[in-house]
Automatic annotation (TrEMBL):
Domain DJ-1/PfpI, residue spans: 58-215
Stored PANTHER family: ARAC-FAMILY TRANSCRIPTIONAL REGULATOR, HTH-TYPE TRANSCRIPTIONAL REGULATOR RV1931C
Residues making up the signal peptide according to the UniProt record: 1-22
Key words of the record: Membrane, Signal, Transmembrane, Transmembrane helix
Species name: Agromyces fucosus
Pfam families reported in the protein's UniProt record: DJ-1_PfpI
Keyword rRNA-binding part of the UniProt annotation: no
Domain of life: Bacteria
Transmembrane spans: 408-425
Organism placement in taxonomy: Bacteria, Bacillati, Actinomycetota, Actinomycetes, Micrococcales
Protein name: AraC family transcriptional regulator
Amino acid sequence: MRAFLRVIVLLLAAAVLPAALGAPAVVGALALNEPRSDGASPPPAPAEYDPALPTAVVVVGGRGAVVSDTLAPYEILATTGAFNVYTVASDANPLPLTGGLDLVPDLTFAELEDLVGGPADLIVVPAMPDVGRPTTKPVTDWLERQANGGTLILSICNGAAVVASAGLLDGHRATAHWLRLDEWADTYPAVEWDRGTRYVDDGDFVSTAGILSGIDGTLHVVDRLVGGDAAAEAARAIEWPHYDPEGAAPIEESRLAPSDAVVAFNTAFGWDRPHVGVQLTDGVGEIELASVFDTYGQSLAVDTVAVGPGPVQSRHGLTFVPRADGIGLGLDRLVLPGTTGHDALPGMEPVQRPHEEAGFAFDTVLEDLARTTDAATARWTAKVLEYPVDDLTLEGPVWPWAETIRPVALALLGVLIAVGVFALLRARRRRRETG
């Protein structure tokens, strides 16, 4: 019995130090989804409205949304020129998008009603961090009202769970991110969840698989509502290499693999992860912004923060608020997304411009992630993004060895401390017995 207890103590000792030192890093990584912009919310650009065009809106929850789920559909729809396109939320406060970017919504729900005079024609629902919680109730209540008016709802990634939590997908087919499909199947059993496809069209509800599969789903909706030529032109405009006008392309049914442990090491033991400032500039493309914040953010190996002197307007009129001016942040480097030709903030070096060359915006960022962290992290990130990388050059260190060795070293240290304590107790007992 004593030997058994000793083994239990040693196991606990091996776990205590990695857990104690890894937990703060996990909390810090997740804290990027909290809004940090200071001061009053700047007014967004005036919402122009053409009653001859259908209205498409991207809804953002009170606790924010996934950055690519939000910005990629927005840019695609705006690029066509065939819609009134807005971001909407329950109130006008800046909302956090994953990775460290704050968005000022174009309209509140009430302002949209006043502007349009009825339900939107298309609602895009991105993944939200608080799906199924009471904080999403303003969104789900609004979705129910809109759906009753005949709106087409397009969910991106785990945005399908937001729609399902409103009861709107009961009896319908849908899909979502591979990483949480089993969870959604248990939580929302009245929905028929599909795997191995980039999107599912089930009449009034179109749902997509993970993150960048939302591009295929959005292009499909453009094809359905406007026409194939408009969808093909939008795909060319964003340089999306995987557009398939024939329908939803099948994808490999991803599952967690041993190599995916890389994200756990990066999250808990990446204590020296680089701090990267992402400079906001007027006219930057929405997908260009998403490529930086989502690639680095999903890797959990790089901390990103939006920096700049003040609010900016993106290529298609979205308002973003920097979280800092960049001064005194101790940044390791500055990334300047987009092809706008803006100068970098003074005193910020080195400066990286990932979009100077033609191509889909995520390509060069994923290649940089492999080069500056490791190939395993880049491949995990691409897997989460659901972006094929066979044509990319993901060259860099094979594995984050330092992040992997740290918990092992801490576990050994904990065991050595426990063994030392056992030895001291044994010595004291012997002294008492012989004294």
